[in-house]
Amino acid sequence: MSLCLCLCSAGSGGLSAPTNVRLTSYNMDLVLRWDPPEGTTDVLTYTAAYRSSATGYKNVCTNTSALECDFTSSLSTVYGSYTGRVQAHRGAENSSWVESNLMIMDKQTFIGPPSVTLHVTGTSLEVSIKDPVFKYSELREVYTLATYNITYWKSSPKEEVKTVSGMMQDRVVLSDLEPMSEYCVQVQIIANLETGPSNYSDVVCEHTGDVDAAPWVAAVVAFVVMAAVVALVVTLVVYWTRISKFLCPEVVLPPHFKESLLPANPSIYPVSPISEHCDQVSIIADHRTEEEEEEEGGCSTQPDTSQEGG
């Protein structure tokens, strides 16, 4: 090991290599970190790369002045083993490459604490758990059998700590608690035996309610809600006509609008129907024959001979 460190320290051009090179993983990310070469005060740049168990080295950070390089976005999977390496640069001088430790992400990543909220229901507390956000994938996608350890205690006076282990649900009810008392809760994630447990969440405290007052309050709330609904229905039925007129009022046009809508020539388009005037007509039929008409005509044309004879 000492021989390897000596070889790594001696780079081309006499530039020392970075030190304390380590590959880390927190919440399923993959980050290579390092320290500057010992005894170097110059401004240096670095090139960092990683390789997997199936591929060769791939440069990710080139000529960076930072002392870390995040490989997460360039990963194709979180499974398998990874190794990182880094090289220092000073002008045209390059140090030798320094390799990191081997990292198996799904077995060695460090899992952060979950977030916890409490909801009071009478003398019970409902513990709502939210998993930490993974940078690559989701906790339940990688650790399908992950469980929670829930630790709780009465804060004043502090009593013996109680633990509920092996819970897979993200909502757990703690019952049989003392009324009107403050309880505090912490939660820890157990992903698998190889990864180890996460850190505990922040301590969250909440007061339980009064066991006698809880049903009474619920009954009052239910009565108020039902009374409000009934009053609303009655109001709608009784005043529906007024409400409908208020919501949908009739539109009354001003007189000058009505005049503008009348046709320009009322003789062509009468506004009202024209009244008809009728006179009574009597028809008398003439039943005389043509012979009677001839006789009547002949009598009117012949001279009176009797007067001439006298």
UniProtKB/TrEMBL annotation:
Q: Which GO terms describe its cellular component?
A: plasma membrane
Entry keyword annotation includes Transmembrane? yes
Q: Does this entry carry the keyword Isomerase?
A: no
> What ranges does the record list as Polar residues composition bias?
299-310
List the GO molecular function terms: cytokine receptor activity
Looking at the UniProt entry, the stretches that span the membrane are 216-240
| Domain Fibronectin type-III: residue ranges | 17-109, 110-211
User: Where does the record place the region Disordered?
Assistant: 286-310
Under Gene3D superfamilies, the record lists: Immunoglobulins (2.60.40.10)
Against SUPFAM superfamilies, the record matches this protein to: Fibronectin type III
Ordered alphabetically, the record's keywords are: Membrane, Transmembrane, Transmembrane helix
According to the lineage, what is the superkingdom?
Answer: Eukaryota
Q: Which PANTHER family match?
A: INTERFERON GAMMA RECEPTOR 2, INTERFERON/INTERLEUKIN RECEPTOR
Q: What is this protein called?
A: Fibronectin type-III domain-containing protein
Q: Which organism is it from?
A: Oreochromis aureus (Israeli tilapia)
Which lineage is the organism of this entry classified under, starting from the top rank? Eukaryota, Metazoa, Chordata, Craniata, Vertebrata
